[in-house]
Design a protein that fits this description.
This protein is α+β, with helices and mostly antiparallel strands and 988 residues long. The protein has 4 domains: 277 residues, Cytochrome Bc1 Complex, Chain A, domain 1, CATH 3.30.830.10; 161 residues, Metalloenzyme, LuxS/M16 peptidase-like (Cytochrome Bc1 Complex, Chain A, domain 1); 197 residues, Cytochrome Bc1 Complex, Chain A, domain 1 (2-Layer Sandwich), CATH 3.30.830.10; 163 residues, Cytochrome Bc1 Complex, Chain A, domain 1. 42% of the residues lie in helices and 18% in strands. The protein is built from 37 helices and 25 strands. Strands 1-2-3-4-8-5-7-6 form an 8-stranded mixed beta sheet, sandwiched between helices. Helix 5 packs across helix 32 and helix 30 crosses helix 32. The protein starts with 16 loop residues before the first helix and ends in an 11-residue tail after the last helix. This is Insulinase family protein.
Length: 988
């Protein structure tokens, strides 16, 4: 199943016994009404998600889905307004309002609302005046006045109290996002904290308070600057602005223009809030361990008095002119070249969406689509694929491709267009339509095992005004589409009516940055709590009892032929399986292992070509993948349980008798060499792969343990084939999650998993030891960017499981602290974090890392602030209490289930543990004090030496400031990546 698939449908014909029991042949989906405990709701018969849809008297929609996988609830609160609803003269409002929603209300986040409010009103008035000023000196001087009043107001603010509140009740993944069409607020909460959560949210959504406005404005500036440094984002904006020349989807951006960000309006934000943040424009969507009657009653109690907007404006779709000829644009930037192009269609709720979804999968399903087999499998391009951008008013069928060495972007585009032409001509096999629909169903069955996916479906239906009955019948609708209808639709809609964006490597001379005015650090009342916070913490909540994995009871253990260990857990939800062959052999044993598993993707057997093999496996509703990590290799087969044995037989043939292909190897090596050069243009690969590894290990690391380019060119098919064949001949074990019982599973494995007479031991592992940092050193790498990315890296202690509880508490406590200090108080960075990480193996070392991404002209200030707080951790009893409650509530409500049980056990074995380490954390954290955290910090973190890794533009970095920390050395890309530059990489 391709990763980029964005279809938002719910599988109706579950390939499961449970689902089959729910469905009938006729009248499958009908919308009905029912009443329970005084509340009327709608539901759809045979709905696999068991959704109830309530509408409160004030118009608030509530979508509830009960799924008792663990005692937690995924909550998404969706506002039907996004970037397209921003006034053209004040873009970025929806997104900035999203940020301000985390600043609290008059009930929390404040020490004294009566004293704070007049100051906030003054700040609002001052910003309105600031917008009218044009003279640069006058603006700078006036902003100093805003800064003064803001600092006075901050004396009454309790920063980050919303996050403290939800963290204290055990919320996870607290966040929000704004798109063109919607704004959605995210929390994953323990089920027993539902009432507390709703009390918080009920207050948050009724009132907005724009406190700490100018420091948060700094964060938004940073977010904008990060987008200006991102070639993917620039390509996306160019594509949209060309496809949508009238609609706000293209005429403005969600994050806003630089001019509008420089002239923010609190008044406009308040007006936007009062217009759109109203109950008749919002839905509360929840999936998890829910009691329907109790939940709707609590929601009514906390949101029922929210006043609607009876003059809520209707959104009128802006009609675009037809595109009658290709529109082509260029984007310059340091990243590797690639092509993106798209066709525009009617919106998410239209019939176009269903047809485009089907065509998208016929072209690219990661296994047997036309792009997959004709371009990727045959290595005619480096990468290619497509996806559906499902906006409310329009959708875009987007295509992407990366060229091979010597190949032009137009050649890649034309090769993809040729695949679309095959659809138009009907030159695809008839079975593929049914296989695609089975694949979609299988994917959705997987997704229904996760509350995030279930709740997201509810959001999509609400924000697109799609009746739930229609929403969950979309796959049935796809089944009704004929091959001829696909052909006719493709011929009508896929013509020369596309927009193509050529992302080329080069210097973008048009890049701007948001110039940020100077601000003074605001006061942080970190020890203070609002009365609301105190009352909330005193609420009696029926506690949950933690459940730890019992490796003897929760994992079934068996033996198959040759005494190979089989570990398995039962899937009682559906008819899908996952089968893992897992060995302790990886790239650190042999760097050729990664090449061999990639080569396997392009090989066939003595009976089937590689294309035929992919087709046969896809027909069975199954797929395989092979991944070589540093010290492990995973061979994974998954899909429909009814076809497990047939798919195993196919896959075992491939492992036992892969057929060498000289041309495939030449193309593979050619592609790897091109990918290596492209990676040196990717700032994320440079920072998080190259620089992070160098900071931990030095010049020789698991990341640089790769074949040289010369050695790559000398590879032969036979040596890679031998590595592939040797996998099942080397000691390994089997992990299984699925519906089969022990006897049936072992029987199938014994009959189909082919083994030698004697299994060979794993080859010797090359160990890489993290570098001792005796003196702080600064390493930097040049990259054409507006911002600077900075990491502090230190080798930690040898693995000691006794540090697990206190390090977990430190990370929880310090994570909130560093965010407050760097972003909330000083507005120095959009992103900042620090973490003490325990080693993954008993013979490994821990590590400490801290990161800040900031504007280059604030590099020195940001580094000083981050290092100061690392060495001089602020003491906050309130912060510690919140951190402890967060850890306790999370552990009490989380459940390790399904395949996670197996890998929890595997990871414990690597640390030589025979129990779930969360038990230690839970039992010890609740008794820890601030002195314990300080002692840990002083012993393992305070005043340590660091390898400081800096990525930025040589013309913007402050090297004199860097030299204050230690010697400064530039690292070349060759030093970071471990392979030499290839002047000509095409293989003759």
């Amino acid at each position: 199943m391709k990763n980029m698939l964005k279809i938002s449908v719910v599988a109706i014909l579950f390939i499961t016994a449970a689902c089959n029991n729910q469905q009938s042949e006729t009248g499958k989906f009908e919308t009905k009404k029912a009443e329970s405990n005084g509340y009327t709701y709608e539901y759809v018969t045979n709905d696999p998600l068991k959704v109830r849809i309530y509408t409160l008297e004030n118009g608030l929609k509530v979508y509830l889905s009960d799924y008792k996988n663990e005692p937690r609830i995924q909550t998404l609160i969706a506002v039907k307004a996004g970037g397209k609803n921003d006034p053209a003269e004040a873009t970025g409002l929806a997104h900035y309002l999203e940020h301000m929603m985390f600043k609290g209300t008059q009930d929390f986040g404040t020490l004294d609302w009566a004293k704070e409010k007049p100051l906030l009103d003054s700040i609002e008035t001052m910003f309105e005046h600031y917008r009218t000023l044009e003279d640069a000196d006058e603006r700078r001087d006036y902003y100093k006045l805003i800064d003064q009043v803001s600092n006075e107001a901050s004396k009454y603010a309790i920063p980050n109290e919303y996050d403290k509140l939800v963290s204290a009740i055990g919320a996870k993944r607290t966040n929000a996002y704004t798109t063109e069409d919607r704004t959605v607020y995210i929390n994953d909460i323990p089920a027993n904290q539902l009432e507390n959560f709703l009390n918080i949210e009920g207050k948050r959504f009724k009132h907005i308070v724009n406190r700490l406005f100018h420091t948060e404005l700094e964060a938004v500036y940073e977010e904008k600057n990060r987008s200006l440094d991102n070639d993917y984002w620039k390509t996306y904006e160019t594509l949209y602005s060309s496809i949508f020349q009238k609609h706000p989807y293209g005429t403005q951006t969600v994050i806003g223009t630089i001019d509008h960000l420089k002239n923010p309006s609190i008044t406009e934000i308040i007006n936007y809030f009062e217009k759109y943040y109203v109950p008749n424009n919002v839905a509360i969507c929840m999936s998890g361990d829910i009691d329907y009657d109790k939940t709707i009653k609590l929601i009514d109690q906390t949101f029922g008095d929210w006043k609607p907007n009876n003059e809520l404006p209707n959104w009128n779709k802006v009609m675009e002119d037809p595109i009658t000829a290709p529109i082509e644009k260029d984007v310059l930037g340091p990243d590797a070249e690639r092509i993106s192009f798209g066709f525009r269609f009617d919106g998410r709720g239209s019939d176009d969406y269903k047809m485009v979804t089907l065509i998208d999968m016929l072209l690219n399903n990661s296994e047997a689509g036309l792009i997959d087999l004709n371009l990727v499998q045959k290595q005619k391009v480096l990468e290619a694929g497509c996806s559906v951008d499902d906006l409310n008013d329009y959708i875009i069928h987007t295509f992407n491709g990366t060229p091979r060495d010597g190949q032009s972007l137009k050649e890649v585009k034309n090769l993809i267009l040729e695949q679309i032409e095959l659809i138009k001509k009907g030159e695809f096999e008839d079975w593929l339509i049914d296989a695609v629909i089975t694949d979609l169903k299988k994917s959705k069955v997987r997704q229904t095992e996760f509350n995030w996916a279930r709740a997201s479906d509810l959001v999509t239906a609400f924000t697109n005004d799609i009746p739930w009955k229609n929403y969950i019948s979309e796959i049935d609708d796809l089944k009704k589409i004929t091959k001829q209808e696909i052909i006719d639709f493709a011929n009508e809609h896929y013509k020369d009516n596309y927009v193509a964006v050529y992302k080329r490597t080069g210097k973008d001379t048009t890049v701007q940055k948001v110039e940020k005015p100077e601000i003074t650090k605001v006061a942080l009342n970190t020890e203070q709590k609002s009365p609301f916070f105190k009352e909330l913490l005193e609420n009696d909540v029926e506690p949950l009892k933690p459940v730890f994995v019992d490796y003897d009871k929760d994992i079934k253990k068996a033996k198959m032929n040759k005494d190979i260990e089989v570990l398995y857990t039962s899937n009682t939800e559906n008819d899908l399986f996952s089968l893992y062959y897992l060995s302790d052999v990886g790239s650190n044993n042999d760097p050729k292992m990664k090449i061999a598993v990639e080569y396997l993707e392009y090989l066939g057997t003595d009976k089937l070509t590689s294309e035929e093999f992919k087709k046969e496996l896809y027909k069975l509703g199954c797929s395989f993948s092979v991944f070589a990590a540093e010290d492990r290799t995973y061979v994974v087969l998954s899909g429909l349980s009814e076809n497990m044995e047939k798919s195993m037989q196919l896959f075992e043939e491939l492992l036992e008798s892969p057929q060498p292909d000289e041309e495939a190897l030449k193309n593979l090596v050619d592609g790897i060499l091109k990918e290596r050069e492209d990676a040196k243009k990717d700032k994320f690969a440079i920072l998080y792969n190259g620089m992070m590894s160098y900071g931990q290990y030095g010049s020789e690391s698991p990341f640089t343990n790769v074949l040289s380019n010369k050695a790559l060119l000398e590879l032969t098919p036979d040596e890679l084939i031998n590595i592939i064949k040797g996998f099942t001949k080397t000691e390994h074990r089997i992990l299984y999650y699925g519906p089969k019982d022990e006897n049936e599973l072992v029987t199938i494995l014994n009959e189909n998993h082919k083994l030698p007479e004697q299994l060979q031991p794993a080859p010797e592992l090359v160990e890489y030891i993290k570098t001792n940092v005796d003196n702080t050193q600064v390493y930097w790498t040049d990259y054409d960017m507006v911002q600077a990315e900075i990491m502090f890296i230190n080798k930690g202690e040898p693995f000691n499981n006794n540090l697990a509880p206190v390090s977990r508490l430190y990370n929880e406590y310090f994570g909130a602290t560093v965010f407050q200090e760097i972003r909330e108080a000083q507005g120095l960075a959009y992103s900042v974090w620090a973490n003490y990480g325990l080693a993954g193996k008993a013979d490994g070392h821990d590590s400490y890392m801290a990161y800040v991404g900031t504007q280059a002209d604030k590099q020195s200030e940001s580094m000083e602030a981050l290092l100061d707080i690392i060495n001089n951790i602020p003491e906050s009893k309130t912060g510690l209490e919140t951190a402890k409650k967060a850890i306790m509530n999370k552990i009490e409500s989380e459940r390790i289930t399904k395949t996670s049980i197996l890998f929890n056990y595997e990871n414990a074995k690597r640390k030589q543990l025979d129990y779930d380490v969360r038990k230690d954390i839970y039992e010890q954290v609740q008794n820890m004090t601030l002195e314990d955290v300080k002692a840990f910090q002083e012993k393992y973190i305070k005043d340590q030496n660091y390898n400081i890794m800096v990525l930025g533009n040589r013309d913007k970095l402050d090297f004199s400031a860097l030299r204050k920390y230690g010697s400064v050395k530039e690292l070349s890309l060759e030093e970071l990546f471990g392979y030499e530059k290839v002047e000509k990489i095409h293989i003759q």
